[in-house]
Design a protein that fits this description.
single chain, alpha+beta, 7-stranded mixed β-sheet, 6-stranded antiparallel β-sheet, about 30% helix, disordered N terminus
Amino acid sequence: MGEQNKEKKATKHICVGLLAHVDAGKTTLSEAMLYCGGCIKKLGRVDHQNAFLDTDTMEKERGITIFSKQAKLELPDWDITLMDTPGHMDFSGEMERTLQVLDYAVLVISGSDGVQSHTQTVWKLLQQYKIPTFLFVNKIDLAGVDQQALILELKKRLSDGCVPFLPEMESVWEELSMQDEDAMEEYLQTERLSRETVARIIAERKVFPCYFGSALKLQGVEEFLQGICQYAKQPVYEPEFKAKVYKISRDPQGNRLTYLKVTGGCLKVKTMLSSVSAKGVQWQEKADQIRIYSGAKFVPAEQVAAGTICAVTGLTKTMPGDGLGQETSSRPPILEPVMSCRLHLPAQYDVHNALMKLSQLEEEDPQLHLVWDERLGEIHLQMMGEVQLDVLKRKILERFGMSVGFGQGSILYKETISKPVVGIGHFEPLRHYAEVHLLLEPAPTGSGLTFATNCPENTLDKNWQNLVLTHLAEKEHRGVLTASPITDMKITLIAGKAHLKHTEGGDFRQATYRAVRHGLMQAESVLLEPWYDFRIELPTEQVGRAMADVQRMGGEFSSPQTQGEETVLQGMVPAAFMQGYQMEIISYTKGRGKLFCVPAGYRPCHNAQEVIEQIGYDSEHDVENTANSVFCSHGAGFTVHWSEVQRYAHIDTSPRFEPEPSIQKSSRPIRIRSSKDADDKELAEIFERTYGAVKRRELFRTELKPQQEYVYQDQGPEYLLVDGYNIIFAWDDLKQLAQQNLEAARQALADILCNYQGFKQCYLILVFDAYKVARNVGEVSRYNNIHIVYTKEAETADMYIEKVTYQLKGKHRVKVATSDSAEQLIILGHGASRLSANMLREEIERTNNQIRQIIEKKR
């Protein structure tokens, strides 16, 4: 087959990755595919340490894949880049990075073991990355392997779309057609499916072709290759240059290699490549050399087309996941390390020199994540497991000549918050100035950190805002419970201030860091720990022991399911208890029990107080992560404790109406004027006769310490709150529309107010009652240039408006549009002014006339 392949020019190209649980025979399958394709003349073996893609000494010694590699596989009409990835869970980060450049995946299943724990982890990743997948069930030559039972297990544990592809495909047409409506229609008409239809439903991940064989004996491999060639589809690439970086490594000479896939256009030698770093810095570098690797050897190329996997030299700023040219950068990896340990350096070795060298390893594996603890003078690193530590130790010795050791591994905790909070950071030593206000909000589990700005540009210039976002992203921010990294939060810049003469870029770095810390010190923090989804298969008589163990670990489980003589127990448990539990199960079940674990992300720590006390972190005295701010008075800076910062702050962001609206402030607030002031005076007199005099707050000076300068409160721009249903049923045209379609009436009012706000530039909030909706938690949404509020259960629009006017009184100019006389009395008591429904209609009509006049003048 191989000689014929070389005579025929390849016309299509795809990138196919091999993935599996460790010891499923993945590397053996890659060897068999290369041999059957004529790419290698001798069939190597893992146990003989001569496999074509096991190029590293440690891989040969251990018999496992540690680093992803690629090889060229030329078949009739096809040029396939075959990528072998690690199967051991400790190196799953390397495997996940490869997924972002795959067109198809081959999931190898051990026929003797079936679906194993890491198999399910890989399957979930393939779902997340939406990669079409072929399955190869290996080792079917072993005694006791039941193909029919394996198919049932694949359908149950992975997907009902797992369908065996047999030499006589007529027997599976009906089963394939059940996975797609169009395929079913075609089958009913023709009693078969076309190759194009089968290829489509595979590409759409509706069907997962299953092939059976023995890679070691070359059984079923030829048929598997033919199946890939028959049912795979070549991607369509755009003409503009794009590329995705998935790996960084170094060759034996120490040259830095950037492995990438060209995803659009073509790449030529000496091309200037560009991207934006994780810190938001734009960079440009030249591609000095292009290498196409196959195993340990490479061929230089002057130009490569879209779809090609290659390595590029000359790039020093690339990182895995970077998008080059028009390509977007990848999202953060799904799999995360769950353990952390201390790195012990040789005696008398300079720690800073060691950090510089070890940073190369962090480039190659970003999840390794080296951390220098200045306070303790220690280097810590994150990892997936013990095997990874052994490999890392050997790698450091061979590359840098350092014989290092590692402390005992500990669980990698994280922290988040349970409620929103505003953090303030101020940095003002002599001739420096910056103030930052951040809103910290809890985000969905597993979402990580997201950063946004909702600060008006007339308050803080856009360049400064971008700088604050850069500073938020550049640092791993630590929590206040155990100094663990924070996660699952949205941090929004809501206000800031700079000085025309004295502000420098570093000032905003200091203010931003302090604002984050200030918010965390005030917040209700939650300690998180990694959890695993587990599945235990064991004899029925031992299930009580397993249930007791899970309860002791602080985990949870569903009702046990009996399957013949075995019982299956599934649930979740903290990762801290899973280390070594596999051996414990084997021991008490006399080898009959199996444990499958899949990372399930982070959840609240089951023994948070105990962990916090054990770690003993003192957030108040962490000078590297301080929450205190620096203010200036009489030419000298002085430190203000975080608990007093809000009193000293130069910007007031305390009035926040709920739910939190993302209002963008106007650069030119215009006051709404009314010709009906007499009505307001009359209402005010009624209120005073009933409730007493109205005391309107004037501008005032804050309480100051002796050295602080006077700060005056600014009333700021104008707010207009509109009682939606009150206005709708007061205006005849909207009332008539509401009788036919209430949603249409709400939409019409919103459109009218959008036009009005666009001219007046006030902050306009349209409020609708939703108090009768059961379990309604309230909603604030942005509609064009206004905000629409639907009140929560048991809260009327009147109650909401009264609450907001009270919060804003004395700090902003507030008007309320309503014809509810009782509500008018209350808002007047809060110092706000009012517009009746008719007054609002007149005001809008005047505004529309002014808009028409302006348009006519421009004509």
